[in-house]
Write a structure and sequence with these properties.
Quinone Oxidoreductase, Chain A, domain 1, Rossmann fold, 2 domains, seven-stranded mixed β-sheet, six-stranded parallel β-sheet, 10 helices
Length: about 350
């Protein structure tokens, strides 16, 4: 499985625009005890890549501070959380039968060992990621998907977008027969939410706009609400009985408008703030109706196991919007930032 000594990688040495992404040659990392070395076949892009590069996450004591996902970034950093590839070497104390297997890496760094651990770091932010020819990963975070009917590109789209979506759906306790609202439905997480909620047997109402509406309908939404027109009125007409679970990556004004549309005991799950992080709502709509507002960051190990089961069975069909070579990482991120696409953007090292 000859592994070379150096590899191409795209790193950032500071926060900034796409120009800080630098293609460079670095040593191939050596898998430590408990780790494997993965040759990257495909790496998918996420908003997390843009926000980590820009330092857009803020800090608890200073919302405007330049910061990575969970604090200061240790530069230089190889970006990229979402990796599909093949195991080419294993470190000490790792089952050697993993070598040669096609795998997806769970990019989360967890706070404890258990199945319900919380993610407190992310590959490509708190440790080096997959914008490279090779990446190391803990063996217990590497999932064998050799038998999956999905392509390497499709598998690479799963960890962050589908992991985040499944985390939202699990934390929101979405059940078959319930009505789910999905905001930002044409984005990576949004489309994943539509796919998984539909596979769960929920009735899916999705918010999108313009030319993307047809693609969201194709992904399985029962009804698409046009963001360009009054959202609340359209929702009342589409779900006169109310919404059971809102799966929201937009937040902002949508929370204030949407909370009164929840049914008794409804759940509003938030995993993003594309529409703004300052939110105002009437708290009476919360407690009088036993509603819940739930924050959801990515997934737990148990959620990721569920996701990999879906991938092995081919029960979800991720949409790949575009593919770029590694040396066009800046163009790929610019394409992502334009939000003109439906589905996920990937790169090939």
């Amino acid at each position: 499985m000859g592994v070379t000594e150096t590899m191409r990688a795209v790193r950032i040495a500071e926060h900034g625009g796409p120009e800080v992404l630098a293609l460079t040659r670095v040593a191939v990392p050596t898998p430590q005890a408990g780790q494997v070395l993965v040759r990257v076949s495909a790496v998918a892009l996420n908003n997390t890549d843009l926000w980590t590069r820009e330092g857009a996450y803020g800090r608890p004591d200073d919302p405007e501070a330049l910061s990575g996902w969970r604090g200061p970034i240790d530069f230089p950093r190889v970006q990229g959380a979402d990796v599909a590839g093949r195991v080419v070497a294993v470190g000490a104390d790792v089952d050697e039968s993993l070598a040669g297997r096609r795998v997806v890496v769970d990019p989360a760094i967890y706070d404890t060992e258990g199945p319900d651990a919380n993610p407190v770091g992310l590959m490509g932010s708190e440790r080096d990621g997959g914008y490279a020819e090779y990446v190391t990963a803990p063996a217990k975070r590497v999932h064998d998907v050799t038998e999956s009917p999905l392509t390497d590109e499709q598998l690479a789209t799963l960890p962050t977008a589908y992991g985040t979506a499944l985390g939202m759906i699990e934390r929101g306790r979405l059940r078959a027969g319930e009505t789910a609202l999905v905001s930002g439905a044409s984005g990576g997480v949004g489309l994943a939410l539509v796919h998984i909620a539909r596979a769960r047997g929920a009735r899916v109402l999705a918010i999108s706009s313009g030319p993307k509406i047809d693609a969201v309908r194709e992904a399985g939404a029962h009804q698409v609400i046009d963001r360009a027109r009054g959202i609340a009125e359209q929702l009342r007409a589409a779900a006169p009985e109310g919404i059971d679970v809102a799966l929201d990556v937009v937040a902002g004004d949508l929370v204030s408008e949407g909370l009164p549309l929840l049914r008794e005991g409804g759940r509003w799950v938030i995993a993003g703030a594309l529409g703004g992080y300052g939110v105002h709502f009437d708290v009476r709509r919360l407690y009088l109706h036993n509603a819940q507002v739930i924050g959801s960051a990515m997934h737990t190990p148990a959620h990721f196991d569920l996701l990999m089961d879906l991938a092995r069975r081919g029960e979800i069909q991720p949409v790949v919007a575009a593919a770029f070579p590694l040396d066009q990482a800046a163009q790929a991120q610019e394409e992502l930032a334009r939000r003109g696409h439906v589905g996920k953007i990937v790169m090939h090292p």
